[in-house]
Structure formats: structure tokens, C-alpha cells
TrEMBL record, chain A:
MF annotations from Gene Ontology: L-alanine:2-oxoglutarate aminotransferase activity; pyridoxal phosphate binding
Pathway as given in its UniProt record: Photosynthesis; C4 acid pathway; Amino-acid degradation; L-alanine degradation via transaminase pathway; pyruvate from L-alanine: step 1/1
Subunit structure: Homodimer.
Entry cofactors: pyridoxal 5'-phosphate
PANTHER family tied to this protein: ALANINE AMINOTRANSFERASE, ALANINE TRANSAMINASE
All residue ranges annotated as the Aminotransferase class I/classII large domain in the record: 127-486
Protein name, UniProt field: alanine transaminase
SUPFAM superfamilies in the record: PLP-dependent transferases
One example of a Gene Ontology biological process annotation: L-alanine catabolic process
First-tier enzyme category under EC: transferase
The keyword 4Fe-4S appears for this protein: no
Name of a matching Pfam family: Aminotran_1_2
From TrEMBL, chain B:
Native organism: Tetradesmus obliquus
Cross-referenced PANTHER family: ALANINE AMINOTRANSFERASE, GLUTAMATE--GLYOXYLATE AMINOTRANSFERASE 2
Subunit structure: Homodimer.
Family that this chain belongs to: Belongs to the class-I pyridoxal-phosphate-dependent aminotransferase family. Alanine aminotransferase subfamily.
Positions of the Aminotransferase class I/classII large domain: 90-208, 210-509
Required cofactor(s): pyridoxal 5'-phosphate
Pfam families to which the protein is assigned, alphabetical: Aminotran_1_2
InterPro entries attached to this UniProt entry: ALAT1/2-like, Aminotransferase_I/II_large, PyrdxlP-dep_Trfase, PyrdxlP-dep_Trfase_major, PyrdxlP-dep_Trfase_small
Protein's name according to its UniProt entry: Aminotransferase class I/classII large domain-containing protein
Length: 501, 522
């Protein structure tokens, strides 16, 4: 001990003054990269960590709680709340992951013929199967199948060379921000409210976020004049805005863009040389009868635009809900070939995305076709999930709109409700005293009282002076009424406690 | 008058000159020029022997049966209670799949804790405890990741604040480290390994290197480390105004294959403690050991056995002055993966980092960063469970599992010997024995005429050799320059992974090419 102390002392005294700055400090929050410390991701932020602790305590039976279980409404993670995976996908994956099954004499009784055929093709065309590193952009056979599927979806060809499979959609965003943010003077236009992957990656890679507000009063509409104004203001400040993020259907807001709006956006990006990142991971989650999904790829081709586009998709959402697979892709269109090389280089440092996820992504894009043995079950399962999601969305939004001081836009798509809440002045003051926004206080007390976990609107960004929270409508149908009820009871008590509106 | 950065060039916004500079400087030779050339030839119909990357299944290695049964059942939970299941799958595989399916709450399709599923992390902790015999590991200081590479990047990203922060990296090294450091805008402080001393550290080359102070692994000392030169490397870097914050070592080595001794590790740990440097122990090849003199010992085990103050540190108040002196155990980050060993499950992307003596708030920050990507993939976590918690004696799959692992390991050992001997039999080639990992890194003494021909072709000599080797034999390798090598030497890295029955052919193809090459250029 004494030796250590004297070493410490001599380190302090003996180290020459000019070396003091270069002696590596102990690793602590003060001495790690500031951008890492600055990055925030509310979807798994403070309230969620608290919820994890409560759940551990609850399961350990350590103390009594006013609720039986923690209800996770903070994150779009369907299978943890009981959503069943699509049988066809799991059957094919099961065979790919244990190829010896294909030789089993009973195989025909266990799996439909089309499943067996899919698995055989994948296994023969992916060298080494799921256990080998594939091409860094993803196995070629899979990219070809996805390209063909994109063409069927949009009516315009897609090239396997422009498709990069990724471990979920998130790594694609990392690659883009890493590539495009050269310094703190580079920026990206990001919607407010947004999914906080965008704000977090901008912080991490040292770029600036230029916000453009979605109009809550107009169903979270996107106004291109507003985009223009924000762009001009940013440029005035000496920022170089390099791209625009559009989330369609929106997260947390759920709105679906109309074709005219999309055309305006494409032209805007082309005009200003902006890279359009089209986050389209919720393209299969559309509930509004009068809305359909049009991909930005289709729009770019239709308009014969040279706008640079990165379109994202994922196995995590839709009715597939395979979050844990980490499957996804980006289609990168109208980029120069040597930039494609750089993207490939970035992807290659991590060698390859996980191969099971690659297969799952491909299956999502190429489900059974009519006439094939698995088709009927697939359609049945798909429609059941989508129908249920639509009902739950309606139930939740309706329930929220009943609450005093709460107004919630319809969830046209995606998996979330994003109600606006009005809090009594005393509640806002109490929050301020804690150094927190009002919606944080609301969400925190909601958790402690009911076990329901939601994310404060401040985590997504919102118009100044407004407060929101984001909840999923993923709890199973039999639970969703209960969630709405508990929310109502809590809300009333909360307003009363803080002196009413 | 324009102010601020330029947004477009030659009509292109996304002009290659207008990208993140660090990105452009980054190189990753394992999938670099040679690989791309091999791809080109493969697509043109040539048969390529893919020995540029450690990717066992691609060359015919079979996955471990138990692991794949469990993964497959996790994919298809409806099979778990099927009457046929018991006839197809081993009972312990079914039991494990049920256990994991329950522990995952929504199965492999659900996001887990951003650090990885709690149950699996507890299994990893138990594995570490049993392996090292120095007390329990903390599951909350174990983060599961999509392979070891994201874990390495996660750690480097927090350590490197700016270009003045340096990480000591062995030369030769696996270029994940150089690529990540470049991308993150830090400084790579190389420490050379001396091939003539079996890859130990080399004082002489230190002095020759100017601002880049290498910590060489000395090839003649079996790539072992010379602490004196390591100390000199750090001192020089500091004199250049760099804060040396971390030291990477790869044990067993990649590409060099050397296994560090217990004493080597002790020296390293003491060095890290004295110089206040974070140790990053890349131990992904810990199962791949082909000699008995130096079995694998983890850095964690050695650190704990050294006792205080290395093991866990003591907060100490100074006896003599009013200032508080904080003393910490060595800050150790250890990495492992499912990609290597005998399972070789590269494509599943499963790995972890174990943290020892890391400040709790720093652990929280790392947790936060992981959470932005939500969760590591479920299948990789299942594979990790099977790796760290294999079937136990008495369990139905135990015998087969043990037999599969031992057979592969024995075969790898034989192949390590075959490849090393094959290279050493060639004229003007010398090769240290592959004591561990999956690679061979022979040194090629290229004749002057070859070097001139390379220059004329605008290629580095080892690149020139490797391209010719590829074009004439279809054997895909990575030139030594991709890993770093002592000035004036040339190497290539190949794997020992072609199946045993193909190994003789592989060795003879190499020999025939090499003899022809020498004939042409000597």
C-alpha cells in the first residue's frame, strides 16, 4: 500500500509539468470522448433503466408494488409482448440453421415443400451457410432476391449492387452519418419529432442537427416551405446541410405522406443536393384506409430525379416483428461508384451482417406466393397481426383522446401513439425543480404508479412549449383495454395531485 | 462570397473528395485489393481458394451439432413440443432451447437488454469464473455484441477523444485496430514484434521509427514482448504530445499466431498499471491452441492472481499531503467471439467484451451507446450460450459435442504444422510455427528482380507476389503490408483452414508457384 501511495505521489511530483497533459487519465466520464457522453437515446433512457430495476425487484419479490407487472410500451418490440412470428419465416430459418434436418426422412411431414425448397436454395447459394462470413454487403443470392422484390413493389428495377444488408436498419444510418459528417459544420435536416437514432448519430459523429418541425395541427404534415426556411437559416449560420431525413410512416408520429408531398421532397433534395435518407421501416404498418405506401425509390424513378437516396427497411417492424434478428437493408441510389466503394469498405470492417438476419430480411421481401403451400397460412397470419394492430391503435388513440387535456392524432401507420398532454402549472414547476421537462415527470410517475413504461416526448423533440409522450400499442389485445384504463386512472389522479388544469 | 465547407464538386455533392477524411484514409486489407481481385476472378469463373480470412465454414468446416440444434429450435419454437422433435433433436438441445426461449421472453425475435440477454450474460460470467478460477465475474460488466468487432469499436470510440489520444497496437496486427483508430480520428502508436526473435519486441527498430514509435513483437522470441521497448514507445509518444491511453494485444496473435506466456502477461499487466494504460485483450482465439508449452491463460486470470494493486485497486489517501491519490486496478477490456475456436460461427455474429476495473459511470455510458443499436442479434446470443455453456458430462449431447470439438482442434493442430513445414521447406521463405489462432504469416525474401518488377507495376512487392499467386493458383491471401511488418520485410497471411484432405494439394500448389516465381526473378 505504501509503495502504491509513494508511486502515486512520485507520479504527481515526478512527472514533468509538460508531460502532465499527456499522462493518460483514468477512464471516467470526464475523460472519455465528449460526443459519447453528449449522445442521448431516450427510447432506452433513464426512465427505461428505472423500469428495468423495478422489474428486477418485482421478480425478486423484494417489496410490494401497486402493479403486477411492468408493461413495456417504450419500444417497438412486438415479440416480447406476445406477437407470434410468421411461421413460414421461422420454418425456413430453422432449416437453414440446422441443415442436417433436410436429410431427415420425416422432413416432408414436418415442413411444407416450398419451405424446404427455399432453404435448399439458400444453403446451396450461400457458401458456408449461416455460419460463414458472407460478402460484406450481404450474400449475392439474397441481394438479388431483394432487388427483384423491390422491382415488384415499385415497378422500377433495383440493382443488387446498390443494396447493402445490415444488422437492422440502424447501422445504415451510422454509415451515412460517419461518411457525411466531416466536421461540426456539416449538418442534417431531421424532423421534429424524430426517432432519436438520428439525433444520437449526429452527436456521435460530430455533425449538427437542423430541425424541421412537423405540424401537429395538420396531422403531423411536412411542409416543404418550412424545409426551405430551415435550410436557408442553417446556411446563414455557415452550416453545410448535407441531407434530409424523412421517416415514412413517421416515428413517433405515425403519419403517412401523400404522393404529392413526396414528390416535393424529392425535388427539394435534388435542387439542393441533399442526400435523402428515407426511413421506411414501417412501410408494412399502415392502418388508415385512405393511405397506401409509396416508396421514395419509386418516386425518384417516376420523377426521373437524380436525387441521392438511401432507403431503409428492417425486419423489426411491420407484421414481421423480428427485432432480435437484426435484419435490414439500405438501397443506395444515384450515388457515385467510388462512394459506393467507401460504403463497402466501411461495411467490410465489420466483415458482414449476421447471415440469419440477412435471410430473414430476404424472406420478408419474398413471402410465399399464391398457389404455394405456405401461402394461405402466411396471409392468415399477416392479416391477423395487421388487423389486430389496427384495432389496438384505434382503441389506444380513442382512449387517450378521452383524457382531460390530452389530444392524440390518429396513428395512420407505424406502431406508436404520440399524444400531446397539458400539465398543470404545479406539475411543470415540480419537474423544473428536478431539472427535468414536464413530460419526463409525467412518465416517471406513470411508471411508479402503474408499471407502464413510455418515453417522454422530449426524447423525440417537440414544438416549444408542448409536451408529449410516446407509447406503443403493442400490448396484446386482451391487455390493451387494461392499459387504457390504468392510464386513465393515473391521469386523473396526476391532475388532481397537481391542482388540476 | 461563400463561407463554410464546400458541399459539391464536379456537380456531385457526394464527391469522393467531400467525404469524411478519416473514412477515406481508413484501410482494411482483409477485404482490400487482393480480396476484390479474387472476387473479380471468382465471378469470371475461376476457382478460388479462399484463405484470406478466418472463415472456417466457407472452406467446409462443419458447425457443432448441439449449437445448431439449439439455434434451429429457437427459430422454430413450434417444434419444441412436436412429437417428432424428440426423434430429431437431442433432449438436452431441446431443453436448452426451451430454457433460452423462456429467458429471451419473446424468443430470438425480440430485442433483448442492450447489453445482451441477462441469462446469457450470467452464463458467460460463469464460463469466465470456471475458466480462470479466480472468483466470480460480473454479468453486468459483460456486454454481448454482434461479434467482437463492434465491442472493440465501442471501447475505442470512448477512449479516443481526438488525434492526440494514442493506442499502442502491435505490428503486425489484425487491421480492425488500425482501421477503427483511423476512422475514429485517434493515433495508432505501433509497437513492433521482432520476427527474428519469434515476434518479441525489438529495441533497434524502435529507434529507427521516428514519431511512430513501434512496439514490435519479436519474431525470434516467438513474437513475445520486450517491456523495455514498450516503455520507450510510450515515453516517445508522450514526448510527441500524445496521451497514450490504451494498449491492444492479441493472444493468441493474429496474424502471427504466438501464444503469450504467463510471465509475458504479468509484465504487460504491470506495464499497464505503471503507465496508466487501458489494456485491450483480444482473446478471440483462446480455444485455438496448437502447442502445449504455452496453454491459454487469460489476462484477467493473471491480473487477479497478481493481487493488489493490479487486481482491483484500492482507493488510497495520501499519507503525506492533503491530496487524494486514487489508485485503480488495471483497467482491462477482454474480447471473445463465437466466430473462431472449433465452432467457427463467423456468420452468426456473436461476441462479448468483459470489463474489469472500469469506472461504473463509464460502464453506464457504454451501455447507453449500445442502446442506440437496441440489442445484439438473438441468434448470436444463443450461439454464445452454447459456446460458454456446452453440454456437460452425462448430458446426451456431451460425447458427440466433445468429440466434434476435439477432432477439429486436433485437425487444426496438424494443419498448423503442415502449413508451417510447407513454408519452411520453400527456398527463401521462413515461417514461425502457428502456435495458435488460424493463420500462417511466412516471411518472403523476395529477390531484387521481383522487387523491381513490383515497382514497375506500381505495387508493393508483397502485393505483387500475392496478386501473382492469386492469378496463377487461385489462392487468395492478404499481403503483409495489410497487417504491418518490419521495414524492408515482406510477408503474406494465409489461413490454415483448408480441410486436411486438401492441405497437401494446397501446400504443393504454393510450392510450385513459389519455385516458378523464384525461377523467373532470381
Amino acid at each position: 500500500m505504501a509503495a502504491a501511495a509513494s508511486r502515486g505521489l512520485s507520479a504527481a511530483a515526478g512527472e514533468a509539468a509538460q508531460l502532465r497533459d499527456v499522462v493518460a487519465p483514468k477512464l471516467s466520464v470526464a475523460t472519455i470522448k465528449p460526443r459519447v457522453v453528449a449522445a442521448e437515446y431516450a427510447v432506452r433512457g433513464e426512465i427505461v433503466r428505472r423500469a428495468q430495476l423495478l422489474e428486477d425487484e418485482l421478480q425478486a419479490g423484494k417489496r410490494k408494488f401497486p402493479f403486477e407487472k411492468v408493461v413495456w410500451c417504450n419500444i417497438g418490440n412486438p415479440q416480447i409482448l406476445g406477437q407470434k412470428p410468421i411461421t413460414y419465416f421461422r420454418q425456413v430459418l430453422c432449416l437453414c440453421e440446422y441443415p442436417q434436418l433436410l436429410d431427415h426422412p420425416q422432413i416432408g411431414a414436418l415442413f411444407p415443400a416450398d419451405v424446404i425448397e427455399r432453404a435448399r436454395v439458400f444453403l446451396s447459394d450461400i457458401p458456408g451457410g449461416v455460419g460463414a462470413y458472407s460478402d460484406s454487403a450481404g450474400a449475392l443470392v439474397l441481394r438479388k432476391q431483394i432487388a427483384a422484390a423491390i422491382e415488384r413493389r415499385d415497378g422500377y428495377p433495383a440493382s443488387p449492387d446498390e443494396i447493402y444488408l445490415t444488422d437492422g436498419a440502424s447501422p445504415a444510418v451510422h454509415y451515412m452519418m460517419e461518411m457525411l459528417m466531416r466536421s461540426g459544420q456539416d449538418a442534417f435536416l431531421v424532423p421534429i419529432p424524430q426517432y432519436p437514432l438520428y439525433s444520437a448519430t449526429l452527436t456521435l459523429y460530430g455533425g449538427r442537427l437542423v430541425p424541421y418541425e412537423l405540424d401537429e395541427a395538420a396531422g403531423w404534415g411536412l411542409n416543404v416551405d418550412n424545409l426551405q426556411a430551415q435550410l436557408a437559416a442553417a446556411q446563414q449560420q455557415g452550416l453545410c446541410v448535407r441531407g434530409l431525413v424523412v421517416i415514412n410512416p413517421g416515428n413517433p408520429t405515425g403519419q403517412c405522406l401523400g404522393a404529392d408531398n413526396q414528390a416535393e421532397i424529392v425535388r427539394f433534395c435534388e435542387q439542393h443536393g441533399l442526400v435523402l435518407i428515407a426511413d421506411e421501416v414501417y412501410q408494412a404498418n399502415i392502418y388508415a384506409a385512405d393511405r397506401t405506401f409509396t416508396s421514395f425509390k419509386q418516386m425518384v424513378r417516376q420523377l426521373e430525379s437524380s436525387a441521392m437516396l438511401v432507403s431503409l427497411h428492417s425486419t423489426s417492424k411491420g407484421f414481421v416483428g423480428e427485432c432480435g434478428r437484426r435484419g435490414g437493408y439500405m438501397e443506395v441510389v444515384n450515388f457515385p461508384p467510388d462512394v459506393h466503394e467507401q460504403i463497402l469498405k466501411l461495411a467490410s470492417i465489420n466483415l458482414c451482417p449476421n447471415v440469419s438476419g440477412q435471410i430473414c430480411c430476404t424472406l420478408m421481401m419474398t413471402p410465399p406466393e399464391e398457389g404455394e403451400p405456405s401461402y394461405d397460412l402466411y396471409v392468415q397470419e399477416r392479416d391477423a397481426v395487421l388487423g389486430s394492430l389496427a384495432r389496438r391503435a384505434a382503441t389506444l388513440v380513442e382512449g387517450l383522446n378521452q383524457l382531460e387535456g390530452v389530444s392524440c392524432n390518429a396513428a395512420e401507420g407505424a406502431l406508436y401513439a404520440f399524444p400531446r398532454i397539458t400539465l398543470p402549472a404545479k406539475a411543470v414547476a415540480a419537474a423544473e425543480a428536478l431539472g427535468k421537462p414536464g413530460d419526463w415527470l409525467y412518465c416517471s410517475e406513470l411508471l411508479e404508479a402503474t408499471g407502464i413504461v413510455v418515453v417522454p416526448g422530449s426524447g423525440f423533440g417537440q414544438a416549444a412549449g408542448s409536451l408529449h409522450f410516446r407509447t406503443t400499442f403493442l400490448p396484446p389485445e386482451e391487455d390493451i383495454e387494461g392499459v387504457v384504463r390504468k392510464l386513465g386512472v393515473f391521469h386523473k389522479a396526476f391532475l388532481e395531485r397537481y391542482g388540476g388544469l | 462570397m461563400s463561407s463554410g465547407p464546400i458541399n459539391s464538386k464536379e456537380g456531385k455533392v457526394l464527391h469522393p473528395d467531400l467525404l469524411n477524411e478519416n473514412l477515406k484514409k481508413t484501410q482494411y486489407a482483409v477485404r482490400g485489393e487482393l480480396f476484390l481481385k479474387a472476387e473479380e476472378l471468382r465471378q469470371a469463373g475461376r476457382e478460388i481458394i479462399i484463405t484470406n480470412v478466418g472463415n472456417p465454414h466457407q472452406l467446409g468446416a462443419k458447425p457443432l451439432t448441439f449449437t445448431r440444434q439449439v439455434i434451429s429450435l429457437c427459430a422454430a419454437p413450434f417444434l419444441l413440443d412436436h412429437p417428432e422433435a424428440a426423434k430429431i433433436f437431442a433432449p438436452d438441445a431441446i431443453a436448452r432451447a426451451k430454457e433460452l426461449h423462456k429467458a429471451f421472453n419473446g424468443g430470438v425475435g425480440a430485442y433483448q437488454d442492450s447489453r445482451g440477454n441477462t441469462h446469457v450474460r450470467a452464463e458467460v460470467a460463469k464460463f469466465i469464473e470456471d475458466r480462470d478460477g479466480v472468483g466470480p465475474a460480473d454479468p453486468n460488466h459483460i456486454f454481448l455484441t454482434d461479434g467482437a468487432s463492434p465491442a472493440v469499436r465501442l471501447c475505442l470510440n470512448s477512449i479516443l477523444r481526438n488525434e492526440n489520444d494514442g493506442i499502442l497496437v502491435p505490428i503486425p496486427q489484425y487491421p480492425l485496430y488500425s482501421a477503427s483508430i483511423q476512422l475514429l480520428g485517434g493515433t495508432l502508436v505501433p509497437y513492433m514484434l521482432d520476427e527474428d526473435k519469434n515476434w518479441a519486441m525489438d529495441m533497434a527498430s524502435l529507434q529507427a521509427c521516428g514519431t511512430l514509435v513501434p512496439y514490435m513483437l519479436d519474431e525470434d522470441k516467438n513474437w513475445a514482448m520486450d517491456m523495455a521497448s514498450l516503455q520507450a514507445a510510450v515515453k516517445q509518444a508522450r514526448a510527441d504530445g500524445k496521451a497514450v491511453r490504451g494498449l491492444v494485444f492479441i493472444n493468441p496473435g493474429n496474424p502471427t499466431g504466438q501464444c503469450l506466456s504467463y510471465d509475458n502477461l504479468k509484465e504487460l499487466i504491470k506495464f499497464a498499471y505503471d503507465e496508466k494504460i487501458v489494456l485491450m485483450a483480444d482473446e478471440v482465439y483462446q480455444e485455438n491452441i496448437y502447442q502445449d508449452e504455452r496453454p491459454f491463460v487469460s489476462a484477467r486470470k493473471v491480473m487477479k492472481e497478481m493481487g493488489e494493486p493490479y487486481a482491483s485497486g484500492v482507493e488510497l489517501l495520501s499519507f503525506h499531503t492533503v491530496s487524494k491519490v486514487n489508485v485503480s486496478g488495471v483497467e482491462l477490456l477482454s474480447f471473445h467471439t463465437v466466430s473462431k475456436g472449433t465452432g467457427g460461427e463467423c456468420g452468426l455474429r456473436g461476441g462479448y467484451v468483459e470489463m474489469n476495473n472500469i469506472h461504473p459511470k463509464t460502464v453506464e455510458e457504454l451501455y447507453k451507446i449500445c442502446s442506440i443499436n437496441l440489442s445484439p442479434n438473438g441468434v448470436g446470443q444463443v450461439a454464445m450460450s452454447c459456446l460458454v455453456n456446452p453440454p456437460k458430462p452425462g448430458s446426451p449431447s456431451f460425447e458427440q459435442h466433445k468429440q466434434e470439438r476435439e477432432a477439429e482442434l486436433a485437425s487444426l493442430r496438424r494443419r498448423a504444422r503442415m502449413v508451417t513445414d510447407g513454408f519452411n521447406a520453400l527456398e527463401d521463405v521462413s515461417c514461425t510455427f502457428t502456435e495458435g489462432a488460424m493463420y500462417s504469416f511466412p516471411q518472403l525474401k523476395l529477390p531484387a528482380k521481383a522487387i523491381a518488377a513490383a515497382k514497375a507495376a506500381g505495387k508493393a512487392p508483397d502485393v505483387f507476389y500475392c496478386l501473382r499467386l492469386l492469378e496463377e493458383t487461385g489462392i487468395s491471401t492478404v499481403p503483409g503490408s495489410g497487417f504491418g511488418q518490419a521495414e524492408g520485410t515482406f510477408h503474406l497471411r494465409t489461413t490454415i483452414l483448408p480441410r486436411e484432405e486438401k492441405m497437401a494439394e494446397f501446400v504443393s500448389k504454393f510450392r510450385d508457384f513459389h519455385e516458378k516465381f523464384l525461377k523467373q526473378y532470381k
